[in-house]
Amino acid sequence: MFKGFYTVATGMIAQQRKTEVITNNMANANTPGFKADQTTIRSFPDMLLSAVDKTNIPTEKNLNVPLIQEIGSLSTGIYMQETLANYAQGSLIETNMVTDMALIDGTYPIDEESGNMGTALFRLEHPDGGEAYTRNGNFTLDPQGYLVNGNGYYVLSETGERIVVPNDNFQLSEDGTISIDNVPIATVGVSFSANPSLLVKQDNGLFRTEDGGVLPSAYGQEGVVFGLKQSYLEGSNVDSARSMTHLLTAYRAFEANQKVLQAYDKSMEKAVNEIGRV
Q1: How far is C-alpha 12 from the chain's CA centre?
Q2: Is the pTM of this model over 0.85?
Q3: Can you give the residue ranges of the Flagellar hook protein FlgE/F/G-like D1 domain (predicted)?
Q4: Beta strands in 181-255 (DSSP E)
Q5: I need a surface site. Which of 130, 167, 192, 255 has the fewest CB within 10 A?
Q6: Could you report the per-residue pLDDT of 97-129, keeping only the tens digit for each?
Q7: Buried b vs exposed e over 115-135: b needs ≥16 C-beta within 10 Å?
Q8: Angle made by CA atoms 69, 270, 72, in degrees to the nearest 5
Q9: Neighbours of 63 (CB within 10 A)
């Protein structure tokens, strides 16, 4: 009986966490460059139940031997194993802002170990040191003429330097080159992650590596094909209709576990108040 309480509780906790992930996705359905999170739910190892008894052997000494009778397996509950970001390309949104940039996915190699497809990301200078990465190309110019994102993080060039432009009258080519009056001044830094599932997702659409290391440049990587587009932003890849369906499914699963928990509670109440009187 008590094992049933624990099993139901794990189901409710897992569905609650899944609901939180889905609602966060829906809240960011209009956030540029946002990558929806996906959850994986697994069950704990099943417990094998057996009944141990003794039986007598019809001999002169009447020996007793243990008799094990298998009853069956018992589920010990479920848990949310991990949350992974979906790096599929979002739709392009025209903004008419020259400082806005969108990464356009072409082809990326498949990582042999994980089976995941790689992805390209903008390079940013993190205030704590090292680099941060993002797909949100909603950039602007600070008072000093540096290209920065919405949090004030400097956008880095291919060589790892801050990008400075005298004004917003510049052109961005598909290969990432920033030019003024047809004179190249910098190349927008784009990094490549062979296995994006190893990236750590942070607030405001930022990603970092687990060890704080720097990702390699996407330029010149074998099998990596991408492009950039000026005055466009990559929209969120959240599917609102599908997310709403998943949210309702998670809610119904939570509700079902809740009803089972209430049934267990009534059974325990009856056992204490009625059977206990016998």
Answers
A1: 21
A2: no
A3: 118-179
A4: 183-187, 190-193, 200-201, 206-208, 225-230, 232-234
A5: 167
A6: 999 999 999 999 998 888 889 999 999 999 988
A7: ebbbbbbbbbbbeeeebbbbb
A8: 20
A9: 11
